[in-house]
Model the fold of this input.
Amino acid sequence: MTLAIDSARLSSEIDALASISDADVPAVTRIVFTPTDLRARAWLIERCREAGLAVRQDAIGNTFARWNGSVSDSPVVGTGSHIDAIPNAGKYDGVVGVLGGLEAIRALQRDGFRPRNSVELLLLTSEEPTRFGIGCIGSRLLSGTLSPDAARKLKDSEEKSVDEVRQAAGFGGELEEVKLPRGYYKAFVELHIEQGPVLERENIPLGIVTNIAAPASARILIEGAGGHAGGVLMPDRRDALCAASELILAVETAARTSGSIDTVATVGMCDVFPGAVNSIPSRVRLSLDVRDTDLARRDAVMQGVEHASQGISGKRSVSIRSELLNADAPADCAVEVVQALTRSCEKHRFRFRRMISRAYHDSLFISRISPVAMLFIPCRNGYSHRPDEYASPEDIARGALVLAETLASLSA
Ligand SMILES: [Zn+2]
Done:
């Protein structure tokens, strides 16, 4: 027998999961711990049980589907990703890594492979920051990057805490039990769409990730003074939106002048209060997102933004306060996992390139407790987090095949 991916089945499962959504086709919306998310999880658990995998869930809803190895207490070879989706997203994002991982395991089973180390498919909770304002809650807790106390303080927009929401969704137990011991994993590999244009542009079907960029994010609150758009003369104004405009451009400048193309900074949200045509903006909330492969350079940009804030605040007599949401270190992928992926590509004579992941993923956090690497496949126009996100069945099957080979070599 030869290792073969059932591409038709994998495609139909991706469609089936996409149909469990709070948005109309082709858009997918699946926010963590909503009834829709729970239905999607139940559907996935059924598929895992059909494959003979033993399923367990932890207190935050991370779901482990295990194919037991012949040496019972040896460290686990893991794969997986997330199935939550931001509002109006597409159907591939984390799903390819979860269903592709499941199909990789089934392909190995059909091939008669018997793993020595257990192979575990992992569905990680809330990779997307939609509900609680911070991404990768499951993998952060699992790796000890987020403390249970800090997790308990997180609230959604309805002021419901993580504990309230997870318990209502049926995930009891203590958050303290989520953290996995060091040495739990022998290796972890995450299959994912690139979410960028490099592979498609270079016509290369596979990317092996060697580094994952370091993200930092903050909320910025600017408070000035409101007033009537006709009545308050220009010298007397303390317009919060004008101050925000200067700050947004300072963010851009800080990233552009960092000295590296790998530095990126984004202000993606701007809430203006009171938001009326004839009223001077008195309050503005901004989001800030800065990423880099180099931690010192990323932090220098954050400091540059802080410095600019102080200058703008003084000059315009507005208050600018910033609340840091996360500032994570970058991850270097593990040589042995990168090599296992490389050998798998070479075995099938698939062309590949090494690359950096500029988006962050659960693997960034799992890297704190396990050797990790990621495998990227192309997605059309580099689009992701939108309804027209697309990866071809051929590219997905190729990724799943390389993943299967890699899981086999790591667990043999
Ligand atoms: Zn993702």
Remarks:
- The pocket of zinc ion is lined by residues 82, 93-94, 127, 192, 361 (CB under 6 Å).
